[in-house]
Automatic annotation (TrEMBL):
Keyword Cell cycle in annotation: yes
Domain of life assignment: Bacteria
Source species of the chain: Brevundimonas denitrificans
Pfam families: MMR_HSR1 (PF01926)
Protein name: Probable GTP-binding protein EngB
Amino acid sequence: MDDFTPEELEQARILFARPATFVMGCAKIEQLPDPDLPEVAFAGRSNVGKSSLINGLVGMHKLARASNEPGRTREVNFFDLDGKMRLVDLPGYGWAKASKSTVKKFQDLGRDYLRGRVTLKRVYLLIDARHGLKKVDDEALDALDLAAVSYQIILTKADKLKKGEAEKVQTETLKAVSKRGAAYPAVIVTSAEKGDGMPELRAEIMRTTGVTL
């Protein structure tokens, strides 16, 4: 994991404590907001904890809405952080209940966003720490490599593991993506529930976007 100075961690804490608001959900590529702010996007399997992570980053319970229905996020959702950057919630993948035509429609939307968004600084691919990388994640990794977008693996729900297990999954995950050209060579272990890894992720995002206070 990258090393952050106490100053960087504090600056990131202050930034993410500022107002965050829902901007819009886009079902078509033509609906995307103007690319006038740096953006970071969050992707991952359905039920990996994207909404919880986004809410945890900004210290709000209901900014991003979690759902018990897998695959409900079928739009690209944009959140504004104090007019300085946007957090983007991409449609989930890996669900079984949605029809193939529906799945393809919002997977294509996500791919179109990845390919054409000039202000996109990094995609954070969320992986459940209890399961690690699975075959269903390969398609997402391939799509990110194809789009040549910088992406970084974030392990979620680390509080569900026994002590030491998260570090093992972290090492295995980093090794698995080490040969992928677009993968950023650091894996952050997080728990939205306990707050673990969140200060480092905030600092990582602030550094990646180049946003300053």
